[in-house]
Amino acid sequence: MGQTISCAGCGCDKDAPSSNKKNALVEIEDEGAIRGPGRIGRSESMTYNLKQQNLNIHARFRGRHGVFVADAIFDEEEQPDPSQNEQLQKTEEEIQFIEETLMDGSNFVFDFMTPEQRTELINCMECICVRKDGIIIRQGDEGDYFYVIKEGAIDVYVSEEQQNQDYNTPQDLSLGQSDVDGNDPSSSAKRGVFALNRSDMNKESFGAESCVGSPQCQENHNGTKHRKTMISLDHDLSAIKRSSISVNQDDTAPSSLSGSSSLDANEKLVCELGPGDSFGELALLYNCPRMATCVAKKSCSMWRVDLCAFRRIMSGVHSKQSSSTNEFDALEALKKVTILSDVLDEPALARVANALIPIKFKCGEKLCIKGEVGDTMHIISSGEVLIHNIGLGDSQFKDIKAGPGDFFGERSLLSDKAGETRSADITATSDTVVTLVMSKEQFETKLGSLKDIMRLALLQKKLMTISSFATSGLEPFQFDMLTKSAKEVEFEAGHVIAIAGKPTMPALYLILSGTVQISDEQKGTVNVLGKEDHFGTRILHVSQIVNNDDPTAEVSTPLTIEVMEPTKCAILTREAIEQVIGSISRLGKPSAPIAAKLNRNIQMDDLKKHRILGIGSFGSVWLVEHKEEKSTYIYALKVMRKRDILQHKMTKHVIREKNIMISVDHPFIINLVATFQDASSLYMLENFIPGGELFTVIHKPESDGIPNEAARFYCACVTESLAHLHKRNICFRDLKPENILIDRDGYCILIDLGFAKLVLNKTHTMCGTPEYLSPELILHKGHNKEVDHWALGILLYEMIVGQSPFASPGLAEVKMFRKIVNAKFPFPDQRRHGIDVTDKAKDVIARLLTKNPSERLGSLAGGDDDIKNHPYFENIFKNNDLVRKKIKAPWLPQIKNALDASNFETYRNDDHQYLGKKLTTSEQSLFQEF
């Protein structure tokens, strides 16, 4: 299989032997075994075994070619039984031995575990014995265990092919040895190709922290940039021999491994491992193929743990023996805090839960002292406390015992001052008490002022009771945006808001306090409205009829509106309303069902196929046109074989992608036009985007990287599309230049929603592209839309610099992951490297590439608006000019005609019928919702 290119509007991968593409980490099986339907690669039979097809992802991250499959450990909607992580008894000496190995600095995975997580991991490790000459792991086999050598010795062998690809050292092979990041001083200073010596590494040149390593690029024989790959997929992976390891376990003896020690002729000894060494940590992150073969030099014993146990621990799913202080418990407790749960939805509560800090108290220690001022809210996670000396003066109350799930100090989040005066003493009565704490300052950083949130929540409830808004089928985020768009204005008594027969501003007024008098001279009526009443809806509709194209134009009204006493109103102008919902004519009209957004008038027989844009494991993608409307309606038709979808357990994921595509409507996100199916295949008809990938704009044969203004424009387009998804609680999860196409106007279109998922709290699937993975994704800590903000920072860096910040040719994947989780990266120097990264660009990139997801730009109180409001994007989002395409694009693709597909590779147009086994009735029923 060659390298991959995404087709216009379809997100498929095409073979491109000369392209420099990224690996898409194919997500865990419960999330989808490929990057979405239509993820493609060339095949004679077109029926690959996906798992074998992608065994070599571990070697291919630098080229970002192809995809790989990582097996699911559990379905995210069905949390596993905590007892699955079996606790195995060990002596104190054994525990200390394993912990010292884990914490020796060579395995970055364990550096980011809490002591409790490490303890549970150690408790889950089993001891196994291996006879002399037994093969423990074989190069190319899928890895699922991490090993710590207890006794004996192990020889490590690597094939000549692997050695020829610069993976001939233990650290490069991820065998648990200490690794030292090096630099290649011979790298060119040409734009997009730079290397930094350690003397270049300073705070000014980097993000929030100093640099580790130096990204580099490499030229191939024809002068184009590419990232080296290790193993070609063209060979027959089914011929790779599995080691014949058997595991025998009883109640008294450790497991025993025995395997054939036969080695391939081209495998060479590269090192020896002994007691205290470890190997296989990447197997705890995903099902990567082994980089080497390990053979017992003599009988030895080892401790091992599998990726399932590791992921359960890192995702917060602990065993019953563990202390329960994770965010899931906190979320449930927060739902009981009425001043929060009444005004915050579940995603917002989850953000609070994820930012809570655990604090321990000893028995007898006071958590709060009566009379002192406190600004923190506490949720008791474990242990018990006594609330005593309650009340002031004659208002005294009985002592109260409180335990896990109880809370106190929540009103301090509402205080206008430094905090709230505590009205009681609170003392720990258990040996250890753990509370999850958040200060007022932390809360306001994450979500904003609680008082403002409560005020907006009340305003939103009022807005939702107004008939013309309540019956419009508006989404929750639209009500939220309307509420935030309302301006509060105070009027003095006697102020006249409108005079009958005179022009007035079309707007909705919600009365927050005071009274107004509305006189209708034509009807001879006088009404007095007060708090929680509203007026102005009739004027809004008249405005739309009279001045359809000008939302700011005043309109004559038959009403006289006068303020009777000091009054405060929240005002929503027609212009503000239309910026959220589109035309004001939508008010009072229910939106069409989601499925109705598809064009039911187009049938498969109406389409004429012109050429294949890509071929894949599930089928192909065709450039098609409507037979009756030639050269007017041009589409990309994705064809997916049902049998292959069933084989790879992708049915629900294909349906999920389709439903998400239907639910979104944005000019910068690919549009799904129609869906079809027949007895053998599914079809998705999408807009054809003719300008090619953003990747080819960034990476040209003669150079890498684009000017700052162009990067700013493209990044702004992507920010708009991501913000649209995030408002609907949808995570995209595979942002990279290959998933962004350029339309005929030069604007970016986000494609391939195969990994997109509705996420209210957190999801725990490792998916995406290695170079674009965030720290929390790598460490299986659970993730949300923050991973998209991280990827946006990587994208902006790659556009300006010409390469991603954490990867470089020759750098082992484990080293790249270490650099990612440490969030250390370099910026080039303009004088030395010829690449100009402005201070504003550096700042926004550094804020997006913040290690802690809760502190990342886009994840704070302002959400995606914080990104838009960053000085780097000054004026580009003003007046919605970007979405309205009023800003000149930096580059326009040359399009000869409507059917011009010259930006995509040429394929033989084989339109053969599928001749495989027919689906049964029960199998066909699985596609009923498509």
TrEMBL record:
<dbReference type="InterPro" id="IPR018490">
    <property type="entry name" value="cNMP-bd_dom_sf"/>
</dbReference>
<dbReference type="GO" id="GO:0005524">
    <property type="term" value="F:ATP binding"/>
</dbReference>
<dbReference type="Pfam" id="PF00069">
    <property type="entry name" value="Pkinase"/>
</dbReference>
<dbReference type="GO" id="GO:0005952">
    <property type="term" value="C:cAMP-dependent protein kinase complex"/>
</dbReference>
<dbReference type="Pfam" id="PF00027">
    <property type="entry name" value="cNMP_binding"/>
</dbReference>
<dbReference type="InterPro" id="IPR018488">
    <property type="entry name" value="cNMP-bd_CS"/>
</dbReference>
<feature type="domain" description="Protein kinase">
    <location>
        <begin position="607"/>
        <end position="873"/>
    </location>
</feature>
<feature type="domain" description="Cyclic nucleotide-binding">
    <location>
        <begin position="508"/>
        <end position="582"/>
    </location>
</feature>
<dbReference type="InterPro" id="IPR017441">
    <property type="entry name" value="Protein_kinase_ATP_BS"/>
</dbReference>
<feature type="binding site">
    <location>
        <position position="638"/>
    </location>
    <ligand>
        <name>ATP</name>
    </ligand>
</feature>
<dbReference type="GO" id="GO:0004691">
    <property type="term" value="F:cAMP-dependent protein kinase activity"/>
</dbReference>
<feature type="domain" description="AGC-kinase C-terminal">
    <location>
        <begin position="875"/>
        <end position="930"/>
    </location>
</feature>
<keyword id="KW-0808">Transferase</keyword>
<dbReference type="InterPro" id="IPR000961">
    <property type="entry name" value="AGC-kinase_C"/>
</dbReference>
<comment type="similarity">
    <text>Belongs to the protein kinase superfamily. AGC Ser/Thr protein kinase family. cGMP subfamily.</text>
</comment>
<dbReference type="InterPro" id="IPR014710">
    <property type="entry name" value="RmlC-like_jellyroll"/>
</dbReference>
<dbReference type="GO" id="GO:0004692">
    <property type="term" value="F:cGMP-dependent protein kinase activity"/>
</dbReference>
<protein>
    <recommendedName>
        <fullName>cGMP-dependent protein kinase</fullName>
        <ecNumber>2.7.11.12</ecNumber>
    </recommendedName>
</protein>
<feature type="region of interest" description="Disordered">
    <location>
        <begin position="167"/>
        <end position="190"/>
    </location>
</feature>
<keyword id="KW-0723">Serine/threonine-protein kinase</keyword>
<feature type="domain" description="Cyclic nucleotide-binding">
    <location>
        <begin position="340"/>
        <end position="455"/>
    </location>
</feature>
<keyword id="KW-0418">Kinase</keyword>
<dbReference type="InterPro" id="IPR000719">
    <property type="entry name" value="Prot_kinase_dom"/>
</dbReference>
<dbReference type="InterPro" id="IPR000595">
    <property type="entry name" value="cNMP-bd_dom"/>
</dbReference>
<feature type="domain" description="Cyclic nucleotide-binding">
    <location>
        <begin position="109"/>
        <end position="314"/>
    </location>
</feature>
<feature type="compositionally biased region" description="Polar residues">
    <location>
        <begin position="167"/>
        <end position="177"/>
    </location>
</feature>
<keyword id="KW-0067">ATP-binding</keyword>
<dbReference type="InterPro" id="IPR011009">
    <property type="entry name" value="Kinase-like_dom_sf"/>
</dbReference>
<dbReference type="GO" id="GO:0046872">
    <property type="term" value="F:metal ion binding"/>
</dbReference>
<keyword id="KW-0547">Nucleotide-binding</keyword>
